[in-house]
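Could someone model iron/sulfur cluster with this protein?
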Amino acid sequence: MTADRRETGDFSAGLSMPWKIFRSRTAIEGRPRPEHIRLYPTNRCNAACSFCAIRKWTRGEEIPTPELMELVRHFHRLGTRAITVSGGGEPTLHPGFDALLDLAGELDIQLGLITNGLLWSDAPKKLPANGRLVWARMSVVDSESGNYDVGRLRRFSRNLSETAVGCYATITSRSSVDTIRALADLAEELPNVTHFKLGEDTVSGAGEKMSELADLLKPGHGKVIVHRHEGAVRGAKRCLVSLVRPVAAADGYVYPCCSMELEDLGQVRPDRFRMTRWRDFGADTGCFDGSICPKCIWDRYNRVLAALCAPMEHERFF
Ligand code: SF4
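Reply:
Sure, complex below.
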């Protein structure tokens, strides 16, 4: 029997019921662990997108390679088995990226990558990451003119031919419909491209353009996922998400989730999101108080985790 991949959230965990949690033994036994972390190795970036949600962050911050190795070993001891390497800035700029691949292989940690693809789509030789990343998602960068080199997706997917590739386009009011449609067509054609996700610009919003594109791409584009932040609610006081999928950022702190970029739009300062220094994050770390979060998209995760972690009357009578 096969499941609808969009329904199960294979490529978009925050949009669906948190089915993957039910496959985690520690979660279903009510013992939350940081099984999947997001890692922001550097805040440096080689692009300057207008919609960048973290453009006010300190750009020079970077975890030195030896410390990055220590950090990964630390979280592995706590139960981490999957890492999404993301930003922050552009993670492929980090000088220790290949060492990170080696260490993940040694520790049997699965790696996924979110990148702008600028370095790797134009790479002249075989990428060491090819086949060693479980997945890599290329974000479309923007430009003053609104033009984008659509062929970048082809080159990126070719250079990572043994990796599942995704593509993400932030839709702004000036996004070119022709460019997005060309990328959607290309995604359908390329065998190792699993999905093409459209996300609304969180800085200025582009709801109408999103709707227009969703209608336009519905026929014939089975790989398109329209990612809207609908249904966001105030955060949970006991944010258990902060214990199962925290963020280790380039400033050396652990943050409770990857939505803090969205929360930082003039409402909540990121330092209020700090949980601990990464070295102090441990099995006894308490969960984050998410009641300061005005817009949480992980509420379903928190409700499921709360139900799994709390004692339940008449538990066997399901
Ligand atoms: S938005 Fe707040 S409550 Fe929601 S997951 Fe993130 S930190 Fe937790």
